[in-house]
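so my prof wants the structure for this chain in the tokens format not the other one, which i didnt know existed until like an hour ago. anyway here's the sequence
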Amino acid sequence: MMPEKKCDSVVLKGIGASPGVVVGPAFLLDYHKVKILKRQIEKGEIDQEKQRFENAVSEAENQIKQLIAEIPGEFREHSGIFETHLLMLKDRMVYDRTLRLISEKKINAEWALNNALDHVRELFEQVKDQYIRERFEDIKYAVRRVQKLLSGSPSVDFSQMESPVILVAHDLSPADTVQMAKEKILAFVTDMGSRTSHTVILSRSLGLPAVVGLENATSSILSGETLIVDGLCGDVVVNPEDDLLRHYREKQEDYIQYRLDVIQYSNLPAETQDGFRFKIKANIEFLEEISTVISNGAEGIGLYRTEVLYLAHKELPIEEELFLAYKEVVERISPFSTTIRTLDIGGDKFLSSVSQDDEINPALGLRAIRLCLKESNLFRTQLRAILRASAYGDVRILFPLVSGRSEIMQVKEHLEKTKDDLRREKIPFNGDIKIGIMIEVPSAVLLADVLAKEVDFFSIGTNDLIQYSLAIDRGNECVAHLYEPLHPGVLRMIYRTIEAAHEAGIEAAVCGEMAGEPMYLPVLIGMGLDELSMNALDIPKIKRMIRVSNQDQCSALVRNLLECSTAQEIRGLLLDFLTPNFPGEFDLSHGLYPDFAGRDAILGPLMTEMKKSLE
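here's what i got, hopefully its the right format
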């Protein structure tokens, strides 16, 4: 029997994780709430309880293998997600610890496994980097499968749903997402989750709108209630009133039309009206993102973040594991290039067998290239894997957090020694592989003319450059509002970096958040940038804007912006430029910001706020 429906309209705010606007009835899933009870066992029951746990793990492995075998062809590339879950079932931080707790504490398997998971959670919670913290979700999904088997909890059969619904759950695993009957699921909303979770990546592949991270969705929504899910800006409206329902119906139609219009630009060249050509590439973390990269018209991978393989297990990955992962990306992207960034991790982010002292300020400590130069074996292993992959396609190496020339010279020394080793072993690689550095600290900007003589390209990491330049911790809610991409100092640093690159005859790219934000695009065009690398889902809209832009006009805009002394002045000039030059791109009446990645920078409302600030 359906619960009695509430009547009041409520708007819940979450994270727009997969784009789209849908209206439909809620279907509340509560099957994931496995009740775990503690039970003391006798000494003579220990072996039996251990066996029960091992049997559950074996059955979970069989389930995952069966799932992999049954994945539809169009999602075959996502099988790597579930193979990761297979590995995590036997991860010693969970598996060995559970067996040890059963023996030492004389407790039942469910409770021991729960304690082991709590221990891993505590380790991940010490990590300040959100992206790294979110990898805990993969461990949790694997553990939850075992817990359900131990407790005898039933699984849900999505195919048995009678009519299209919006799923409401505390959380959804990638396995849940793949098994959804798309014709029966309109969208999903969850208490937990983030934009970079495997579940969200799969939801985008399925074309399912999603809002995650609502925290209280399952306690605020009843099955049968009418929901509006806005995956563009992260709103979930419960029991919408007629006026609000009409508003969102219009927004839904606008988005569908926009999507039909903009997708046509995916495979067109990113060229301005006056003939200025950009390279548009994609940032990726997972192999599973490659099909999205290709379908959205990327001209290669501008930033392949390589941290995932180092964070999946407590032990460091071996060279062969790294090589096979890099080789697959390179081959699938070929003939376009793949820019592989070396390990950008350290301090509070590192969860491996490399021992490190606690650091008061890890962001300014032993991380990225500093860690790699200290741990030369770790660094050389990754360099070997990257060089080996370069035999299978066009590969470029990108080194993060470089602050001066001496670091580049050390990096080059390691690279040449690694090349010599591979030559002696007669292992093929590209001896002329191009190398670049991330420009993300002020010293690198000041030395850009010097550094440009030592490398083949620059890639500007605007996220860290803004953070380090303005001394702003974006994760600190007290100062996050001061994070300002349009700060005059930031714009001057980006401009100086591009100028130094071109004077040295090398290319300059931007791979930070600014690259995929339409609001900043005229500024980057006007600075004469060569390449933009972004979330793949942002590419069609950025290409469309480039194709209606005029580089000379954007250059004139930039000259004026560089004369400004405040971010408010810059915002005013930029708004005056955007409105006439990109008519219809942003619909302020509906607040429609067609952001395929579902980021929370909603340009329509932002421009409205900008107008207010200038009045």
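also thought this was worth mentioning. The CA atoms of residues 167 and 506 lie 50 Å apart.
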